[in-house]
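in:
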């Protein structure tokens, strides 16, 4: 496959434009729903607008949004990454262990990032070159990563950040003006991702790949290397989200890989307007979906709903979002090849 040509870039720009225009109405509807839900909860739940709950809400939204930004890249390209949370838990757990053992922070952080990118590249290689459907490849690598981490590095489920590494906790705190730092991290990652997807050749090519993979391949786009890059980015961004999680809680619980977090991330992406058929949506879609799901999860917590009820609500909303996405953007033969 050749390099991306000017003709390829023009096609990618048109695909980017379609990707940003088509979900506009859905994004508007989601933002409107966010406003309605926020007002309704503020009026009916006395504890919703408290300072403590607002901090908890913004931190939860920040981590969820960062993960969704990484997931959004692969979904725009007609993929999916079920390994993201398992990679997050494993690599951040390893990073905390290294920090607690006195390894210099740049080395420990770099090692975690390197492992995360490596697992992402493995996902991409299995999907692009071995042609394993993304659903099964990422599910398998997630289980493999978590199992290897438990067997070789972290036999315990929880690893706590040592007091000598309190500097990392500052990234989970607030600025002097009261603004939570995780929100700033989310905003910076969102801005970088927006610039990448809209204003770079590779970003626009991802839209073109998702819009029509066959055409992208025939026009000379390096589709297979692009897939490897997309999954590497998903894992790397997930690692950043994991570090924010560690900074906010001073620990990493490996059992988070068995939680519903990965489904919340997918729900954010699909509900916000990034279609599972690829080529549509963007950073604004992720922000819309993150706000809605973040508020919904926070409200269910305040209502003290049991886990089963929360899972029923999550599942119903996710199913509804997938049905709507399927009706608005029917799947085709190429989508089926992606394992979606």
């Amino acid at each position: 496959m050749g390099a991306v040509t000017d003709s390829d870039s023009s096609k990618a720009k048109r695909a980017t434009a379609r990707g940003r225009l088509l979900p506009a109405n859905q994004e508007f509807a989601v933002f409107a729903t966010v406003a309605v839900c926020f007002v309704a909860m503020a009026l009916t739940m006395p504890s919703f607008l408290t300072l403590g709950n607002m901090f908890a809400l913004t931190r939860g939204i920040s981590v969820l949004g960062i993960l969704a930004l990484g997931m959004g890249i692969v979904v725009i390209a007609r993929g999916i990454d079920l390994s993201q949370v398992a990679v997050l838990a494993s690599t951040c757990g390893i990073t905390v262990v290294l920090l607690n053992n006195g390894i210099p922070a740049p080395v420990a952080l770099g090692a975690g990032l390197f492992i995360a990118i490596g697992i992402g590249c493995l996902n991409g290689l299995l999907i692009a070159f071995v042609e394993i459907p993304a659903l099964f490849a990422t599910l398998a690598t997630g289980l493999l990563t978590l199992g290897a981490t438990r067997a070789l590095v972290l036999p315990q489920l929880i690893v706590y950040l040592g007091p000598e590494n309190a500097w990392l906790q500052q990234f989970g705190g607030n600025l002097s003006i009261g603004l939570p730092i995780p929100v700033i991290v989310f905003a910076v990652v969102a801005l970088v991702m927006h610039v990448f997807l809209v204003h770079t050749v590779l970003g626009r090519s991802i839209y073109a790949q998702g819009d029509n993979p066959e055409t992208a391949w025939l026009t000379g786009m390096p589709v297979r290397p692009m897939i490897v890059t997309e999954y590497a980015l998903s894992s790397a961004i997930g690692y950043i989200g994991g570090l924010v999680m560690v900074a906010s809680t001073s620990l990493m619980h490996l059992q988070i890989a068995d939680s519903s977090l990965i489904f919340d991330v997918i729900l954010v992406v699909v509900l916000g307007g990034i279609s599972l058929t690829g080529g549509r949506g963007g950073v604004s879609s992720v922000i819309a979906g993150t706000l809605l799901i973040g508020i919904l999860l926070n409200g269910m917590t305040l209502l003290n709903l049991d886990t089963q009820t929360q899972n029923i609500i999550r599942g119903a909303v996710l199913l509804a979002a997938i049905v709507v996405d399927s009706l608005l953007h029917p799947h085709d033969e190429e989508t089926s090849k992606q394992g979606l």
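note: The beta strands are 158-160, 251-253.
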